[in-house]
From TrEMBL:
Species, as recorded: Fraxinus pennsylvanica
Superkingdom classification of source: Eukaryota
InterPro entries referenced in this protein's UniProt entry, alphabetically: At5g01610-like (IPR036758), DUF538 (IPR007493)
Protein known as: Uncharacterized protein
UniProt keyword terms in alphabetical order: Signal
Lineage: Eukaryota, Viridiplantae, Streptophyta, Embryophyta, Tracheophyta
Signal peptide start-end: 1-23
Gene3D superfamilies assigned to the protein according to its UniProt record, in alphabetical order: At5g01610-like
Keyword Ribosomal protein attached: no
Length: 174
C-alpha cells in the first residue's frame, strides 16, 4: 500500500469519527462554513432558509441538524403562501433530502401545517406536509428571503419611499 493510499485511508477514518460540527455564524470569521454553505453542500439552495441564522449545529455522522434565529418570523411568498419559521428549526439532512423537520410551517387556507420534509428532484423542490406535497422550481430559492417581507423587500421599501403603505400588510413577525 502506497503512502498516498495510507493518508487517504487515515483522512477517511478521521472524518468518519470526527465529532459533530458545532458552528456559530457570527464567531468572528473562525467558522469554516455557514448554515447556508452546509445547505449547498447537501445540494439545496440557500433560499430555503431565511436570512438571519445566528448559529447552527450538525452531526456529520447522522445528519441531525439545528439552526437558530434571534426570533421566529413569518413572510409571504408567491402571494398566496405564508411561511413561519420558529427561532429553532431542526431535522435530518442528507443529499437532496431534509426529513423529520420541525419549526417550519405553511399556512394553508386557515390552518398552519408543519412542513416535515423537503426533497430535491432535479430542478424542483418538493415540500411535504403529511400526505400533501407541493413542488416549486429551484430557481425560486436561489436567494434567502427576509423575515417580514420575504423576497419582496426591495419593492416594499421602494413603495414606502414613494409614499405607499407604511407597513407590510398581512405579514408580521411572530
Amino acid at each position: 500500500m502506497s503512502t498516498t493510499q495510507r493518508i487517504c485511508i487515515f483522512i477517511s477514518l478521521f472524518l468518519a469519527t470526527a465529532p459533530p460540527l458545532i458552528a456559530t455564524a457570527d464567531d468572528g470569521g473562525n467558522t469554516p462554513l455557514t448554515a447556508y454553505d452546509v445547505l449547498q453542500a447537501y445540494d439545496f439552495p440557500v433560499g430555503i432558509l431565511p436570512v438571519g441564522v445566528t448559529h447552527y449545529e450538525i452531526n456529520r455522522a447522522n445528519g441531525k441538524f439545528s439552526a437558530y434565529f434571534n426570533s421566529s418570523c413569518s413572510f409571504s411568498i408567491e402571494g398566496s403562501y405564508q411561511l413561519r419559521y420558529k427561532s429553532k428549526i431542526s431535522g435530518y439532512i442528507s443529499k437532496d433530502k431534509l426529513t423529520s423537520l420541525s419549526g417550519v410551517s405553511v399556512k394553508v387556507l386557515f390552518l398552519w401545517l408543519n412542513i416535515d420534509e423537503v426533497k430535491r428532484n432535479g430542478d424542483k423542490l418538493e415540500f411535504s406536509v403529511g400526505i400533501l406535497s407541493a413542488e416549486f422550481g429551484i430557481n425560486n430559492f436561489y436567494e434567502s428571503p427576509q423575515c417580514g417581507c420575504g423576497f419582496n423587500c426591495k419593492s416594499i421599501e421602494e413603495n414606502r419611499q414613494r409614499g405607499g403603505y407604511s407597513s407590510i400588510p398581512f405579514i408580521s413577525s411572530i
